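for the writeup, i need someone to sanity check this before i put it in the appendix. the sequnce is what the collaborator sent (i think, or maybe the updated version? ugh). structure was predicted straight from it, no edits. if anything looks off just tell me and ill rerun, i have time this weekend
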Amino acid sequence: MDLFFFPGGKRFGVEFKFNEAPKVTKSMQSALADLSLAHLWVVYPGAVRYAAHEKITMLPLAEVACLSAETSK
């Protein structure tokens, strides 16, 4: 996990990957459970945002600015 933050008392994480097609890893699943994350975003250089898991979103680098809005939901 590259970034861990607590807006509004919720726990969120961000991981950065250089892979064009990142996959959910065991370490991501462990971080969700061990840190009680509300959500984890995986920022990658691709162009398409997609849900890889109920609490994991693959997020294009171009959309990283939207994270502040996403954490206020």
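Strands lie at 3-5, 12-16, 39-44, 50-53, 56-60. The chain has one domain: 3-70.
thx in advance!!
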